[in-house]
Amino acid sequence: MPPKRASSGSTKRKASEDDASSSKRAKTGEFTPANGQPNNKTLPVSISFPAKTDGALRIAAWNICGLAASQKKGFKFYVEAEDPDVLVLTETKVNNEPVDPALKARFPHCYWAISATKTYSGTAILSKHEPISVDKTLPGHPDPSLVKGRIVTLEFPSCYLVATYVPNAGAGLKTLDVKKEWNVHFTRYIRDLDKKKPVMWTGDLNVAPTEIDLANAKTNWNKTAGYTEAETTAFKEILNPSEEADAEHKFVDVWRKLHPDDKHYTYWSYRFNCRYKGIGWRLDFFVLSERLVDRVKMCEIRSEIWGASDHCPLVMEIDGQL
């Protein structure tokens, strides 16, 4: 059975025929998706956000679907408006560490994990705060070339910050076994980190955990990458470990905890006019060690920031220092 929402509150995924079961042609005139999210198809001309909470850190995560392409479509305008303390980027598709004086001036501490495959995947953490240590590996994984470009871990005095661009299960689920292997090693890794100090995990996790995290749950269940029993069960196991020995090391999907009933998304395929129709998936997350959750001041999907990528950013504020 498809996973229900809790009672308590890579190849790029391509839209399927089921995802776009209504007309594939663009409609004209005004249209508001049923879930109430904006459906603009280009970045807004003017971007502004509420001021950061006093004493809080602002962390933003965004799958940019290629840094070079995103920069041509308004990437810098979002970064300037958000002005996060930490910016996590996934699917950067860079082949070398970018030379960007403006970005470096805003974020003195930049860590780029670059894929072994040219112009593919890529993960980065750009920070105003210097970490104690940096790691770009997934311990125990048998294929370092697959891991390369998909994970960056920064250690700070009070926590670990882990950014991932999790492998996609592929068209026709052809790389589901690759995803399963990643999940086994990553679950062990994040649990081991949590035994040392609390963890903040963010990025494009390439999973829709429950039926309200995608537009067409029934038709995609066990057919489409990101919404299979294997993937949703692995994510659930991180949040609520089944092993008694790990029971105290629980994690929380922060946005879902704060928005238990909202059916909002972070990704819309460029195909089939999915953004306009509101046919999306929630694939980008902040997942925190349970003992960190009380420090969270807000967590919001920047729904209107679409057009520079096929994803929109997710932002969180947390009280205190890293």
Structure description:
The chain is an alpha+beta fold and 322 residues long. The protein starts with 55 loop residues before the first strand and ends with a strand. About 7% of the residues have low confidence. Helix content is 20%, strand content 20%.
Q: Topology, pairings included?
A:
Elements: E1 56-63, H1 67-71, H2 75-82, E2 86-90, H3 101-106, E3 109-113, E4 123-127, E5 133-135, H4 144-147, E6 151-155, E7 160-165, H5 176-194, E8 199-204, H6 217-220, H7 229-239, E9 251-253, H8 254-258, H9 274-277, E10 284-289, E11 296-301, E12 314-319
Parallel strand pairs: 1-2, 7-8
Antiparallel strand pairs: 1-12, 2-4, 3-4, 5-6, 6-7, 8-10, 9-10, 11-12
Helix pairs in contact: 5-7
